[in-house]
Amino acid sequence: MELLVNKLISSILQILLFAAIPLIWWAVSSRRQTSFWNWIGLKRIGEAKGKGLYVWMGAVIVGFLLLSLLILPLVSGSDTAASEFNGLGIAALPAALVYAFFNTALPEEIIFRGFLLKRCSAKLGFPIGNAIQSLLFGLMHGVMFFAITGALTALLIIIFTGAIGWFMGMINEKKANGSILPSWLIHGIANTFSALMAMFLIF
């Protein structure tokens, strides 16, 4: 129970922290044109570009899970975001779900696909905007591993997470009318998988 409460509190703080800069930016630049939720992409997907959306989402999720089976053993024993669930078993599932969807996935989707991608795309076009956010997303997840696992593993993690970030950005903008809900779901499922691996000490 203590872990669940800690994750709930941490999630609220993370969401507020990651949403602060986008909220200020919106208030200064776009408050009169649209709501913050629409501006950041926390909105319904709609139907205009929905054809093929769930196929893409399923493919990215399956691809992530398969590649994770190769990547996770490389960081086995390292201190990762899911390490706090090591060996806790099914009792940790509620806390793991909060961690997966609200402590990490939602804040990161707000800042990377909701803010950086949309703002960079507005100035530089979607291809460059998506490349920028996915590169930064990959670097955020991989740079810390240079000193822990070595350069090769760190580069693999950067490429792996960056590629996932690129596909999530593409799905949101090209298949889901700019909604970040698809990438939030993909991201949350991916984090849940990593937490489950830690909970049952599979790697």
From TrEMBL:
GO molecular function: endopeptidase activity
Transmembrane intervals: 12-28, 53-75, 87-106, 127-148, 154-172, 184-202
Location of the CAAX prenyl protease 2/Lysostaphin resistance protein A-like domain: 94-193
Organism domain of life: Bacteria
UniProt entry keywords in alphabetical sequence: Hydrolase, Membrane, Protease, Transmembrane, Transmembrane helix
InterPro entries: Rce1/LyrA-like_dom
Protein name according to UniProt: CAAX amino protease
Species whose genome carries this gene: Paenibacillus apis
